[in-house]
Design a protein that fits this description.
The longest helix is centred in the middle third of the chain and has 28 residues, at about 25-55. The chain is an all-alpha fold. The model has no long low-confidence stretch (mean pLDDT about 85). It has two helices and no strands. The protein has a domain at about 15-50.
């Protein structure tokens, strides 16, 4: 059943359903908020990687 994955007409139906549910006026705001959240997540992940590289890990004495 799910062997073929998503085909183009599946995505078209999904897009139509999303437009009908949320309305065309809210979609740009939603996309903008999603993009902003992704940028924040990316910058936080990058900061965490830089922190891990700068601070060597030390094991506590047993």
């Amino acid at each position: 059943m799910l062997r073929n994955g998503l085909e183009p007409w599946h995505l078209l139906i999904l897009a139509i359903v999303v437009i009908v549910l949320f309305g065309s006026k809210k979609l740009p705001d939603t996309a903008r908020a999603l993009g902003k959240s992704m940028r924040i997540l990316k910058s936080e992940a990058k900061a965490m990687k830089e922190t891990d590289v700068q601070a060597p890990r030390t094991d506590p004495p047993a």
